UniProtKB/TrEMBL annotation:
It comes from Mycena metata. This is Ubiquitin-like 1-activating enzyme E1A. Pathway: Protein modification; protein sumoylation. Residues 16-330 form the THIF-type NAD/FAD binding fold domain. GO terms for cellular component: cytoplasm; SUMO activating enzyme complex. The keyword S-adenosyl-L-methionine does not apply. It is found in: Nucleus.
Amino acid sequence: MVDATLTEEEVGRLDRQIRVWGFEAQQRLVLHFQRLMRNATILVVQLKGTATEVIKNIVLSGIGKLVIMDGDEVVEEDLGSGFFFRDEDVGKKRVDAAKDRIESLNPLVTVETITTFAGLEGPDFDATIQRVDLVCVTDWNREGLVRLNDACRRLGKPFYAGGTYGVLGYIFCDLLKHEYVAPNDRSVPKDAQKNIKLSATYPPLSEALRHRWTALTKRQTKEVNPAALWEYQKLHSQLPTGAADVAELQSIADAMISAADVKKQVLETAPAELIQSLSETARSEFSPVCAIVGGMLAQDILKTLGARDPPIANFFTFDGNTGAGTVCRMSMP
């Protein structure tokens, strides 16, 4: 049963909104959001730096149940970006090491762990997806993301993907046909705004990646997705390891730009400094980048569950070299 009143802390935090909308209206909005959160079950796949930030934010928001799937053990590299882990956890299963600390953030949230990736295959994965409301897969390869996204679409479940490659990061979402409520005109004062119901249709990742690059701006063309890294990962079953891989990654990126028929006045070759950065840092996780990407990913997940305001449409990339992010509609109407 959901508490029918706001706490003193919530009243203080929402003071401005209460003065604009009135206490009863704001209370109805908050209680509606709380009900949606407390009824929500979210699956997060792979507990690395990005997922750590996602989990922290969605657990603190008060979701009903969190299911975490990860078959790997804690390694020393996880200690820098995974604040659920400690030195003594090295060698333990990631989900086992993190479970108690995640539960301590919000004892009202049920935390379930799956200590193997075997559940990502065949009927077992279908069974897992069917009992959750939303799937979030982090730091995964392109082929796996496409396959998991397709499974989620077949079962009618919203899908998020995200991750970081050194100082770079991305978010992708496929929300099927998503309905939400948003103000009709944000240019007018809040007391004059009216909420209207809107909808957006999202494509799967496989279709989004076929988006015409010629329709992108120069900045979007440079930053829009980790395509070259994903192609390198497909060829070598791993990410670049350092300076020795710069030339090959540059060649892959340039070939993709050429095949996409990008106008030469927009972009003739992949920026050398970007390729250098990717080659040398892609295998590393940096806490500030994970915090930004994971925080935005969590915020968008909560926005989707709450069906208030439009989620990202539908690809976001972050460049820690510049501190800037880019959102691009990839194959969306």
